[in-house]
Design brief:
flat; mainly alpha; single chain
Amino acid sequence: MTEPPSLKRTKRSKHLDVFQQEVIQWETDGLTIRAMYHKLKEKDYTGTYGALKCYVARVRRKKKAGQTLQPDSYYERKNVRKILW
């Protein structure tokens, strides 16, 4: 080993990553989480309902805070604390 090991963790991909833009669009159109889940299941989504529910809650918090709805443009409070400390 010539260098010390990297302390950065790699971000794992999630089943919902492929469908993020569609979920954001459906949220702005006013679809319910259950309707989004059924549409995603038709498109071979293999993730869980709970994962979708958490993601939509995050999108709704962004929307309420006036942030942009694009992925990775908003930092949650717990992540800001990790960055600062």
